[in-house]
């Protein structure tokens, strides 16, 4: 993801996550933190159809965001983005990869479980519309 991608990414963000969309300035700020952040987009021709972001502040890494537009769901794009973030977190020597997922989003939770994430905590009313967050973790480097 580059600064030139932000208008399109942010338009998707507000469409896909109307209650929880990040402010535009937050995306812009994240892109300046390249020592601890990685952001990717998936394009189909000139159109961005998915994006994701990873924060790595060792020993932990955190999935900041992951989104696929509805008409491209079910094509393995979300899995590809998740594998990309797992690989980057591993390359950066993170011990664990964490994420928050809406409690009312079983499809996303199932995706994460397929890749070895497990629910470790629940944050009540985490999202602006009052929905709980399920905190999930994937152990990347087992503790000795």
The share of residues in helices is 25-40%
Distance between the termini: 36 Å
- How many individual β-strands? 6
Low-confidence runs:
none
Overall pLDDT confidence: 94
Please compute the radius of gyration using only Cα atoms. 15 Å
Sheet-strand content, in percent, reads 25-35%
Number of helices: 4
Q: Assign an overall shape.
A: globular
Strand order of the largest sheet: 1-2-3-4-6-5
Order of helices and strands: HHEEEHEHEE
Structural class by helix and strand composition: alpha+beta
Largest sheet: 6 strands, mixed
Secondary structure topology:
Blueprint lengths: L5 H11 L7 H8 L5 E8 L2 E11 L2 E9 L8 H15 L4 E7 L3 H9 L3 E6 L9 E7 L5
Parallel strand pairs: 3-4
Antiparallel strand pairs: 1-2, 2-3, 4-6, 5-6
């Amino acid at each position: 993801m580059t600064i030139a991608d932000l208008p399109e990414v942010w338009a998707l963000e507000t469409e896909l996550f109307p209650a929880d969309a990040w402010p535009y300035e937050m995306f812009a700020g994240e892109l300046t933190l390249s020592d601890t952040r990685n952001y990717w987009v998936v394009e189909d021709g000139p159109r961005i159809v998915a994006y994701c972001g990873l924060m790595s502040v060792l020993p932990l890494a955190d999935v900041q965001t992951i989104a696929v537009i509805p008409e491209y769901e079910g094509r393995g794009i979300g899995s590809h983005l998740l594998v990309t973030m797992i690989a980057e977190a591993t390359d950066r020597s993170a011990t664990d990869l964490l994420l928050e997922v809406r409690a009312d989003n079983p499809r996303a939770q199932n995706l994460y479980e397929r890749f070895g994430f497990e629910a470790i905590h629940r944050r009540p009313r985490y999202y602006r519309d009052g929905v709980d967050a399920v905190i999930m973790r994937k152990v990347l480097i087992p503790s000795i």
